[in-house]
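Below is how a single chain appears once it has passed through the pipeline. First comes the sequence as given, then the structure the pipeline wrote out for it. We keep one example in the README because the format questions we get most often are answered faster by looking than by reading.
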Amino acid sequence: TIPQGGSGDVAIRMAAAKASDAMGQQLLVETNGAGGGTVAAKMVMKAPPDGYTLFHSSNGALAASVFTKKDLGYDPLKDFAPITLVAESASFIAVSAGVPVNSVKELVDYAKRNPGKLSYASNGVGSFFHITGETFKAAADIDLLHVPYTGGKVSIPLNDLLAGRIDVFFPSMTLAGPHLKGGKLKLLATLGDKRLKRAPDVPTIAEAFPAYKPMPSWFALVGPAALPRPIVLRVQSEMAKAVADRTVSGRLEELGMEPGGGSPEELAATMKYTVEFIGKAVKALGIKPQ
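Resulting structure:
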């Protein structure tokens, strides 16, 4: 799975625990965020197609990395068998408490008055946070310094945001939730299409800054390309039941996630759309593979 401690990590661990009960076999979740998840992706791509080694990731390793990583070594649309969407996740535009703004409009105005002064964090080139930051910069016509963190852990840039070493970040509710009352960060907008129950006063990006169209944010489960159809359907079925369980789905919704569980075909279409979306964004922004 992808970065430890993030919303996707929480989602797959909850779903795997529930699915383990139904399948009568423990599903082990191993974190490997190296290369923004691309190292784990290549491991799974080369794994025997027996259903014992699967890959859970955000759209970073399964879409964005196509355009942002040199010598990626795989094609997410050809080298994996889509199984199911685990969850969709809404992130926020958040700023450190010391940044003198209280809305997206104020952030944009401040950044324009102080070009290059503000920084934003990501957990690596090609990650969701990187593409989000660059597309937001372009939509707002502002200059923010990109600070990519290595190792894949999203908790590190969040801690630096809380400490004031980074000005802007795009955390999920999973990351931001424990700090909502601490006074060390401010949520300016959610990048989802509806306000969240835990932060009802935080507007959607469509309300706060309609010029910005955020990239899709999701977490999915895939396997090696040759994974037999019966195995794909068995895993999809059990994962769908797991995320639909009221205990799991309720917790996911508390964390700002929409439970998934759709068909392999639906995931394939989502992946294709996201690759096309990011490809257009990367081309327009002139982002080069690194």
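The chain has eleven helices and nine strands.

See the next section for the split statistics.
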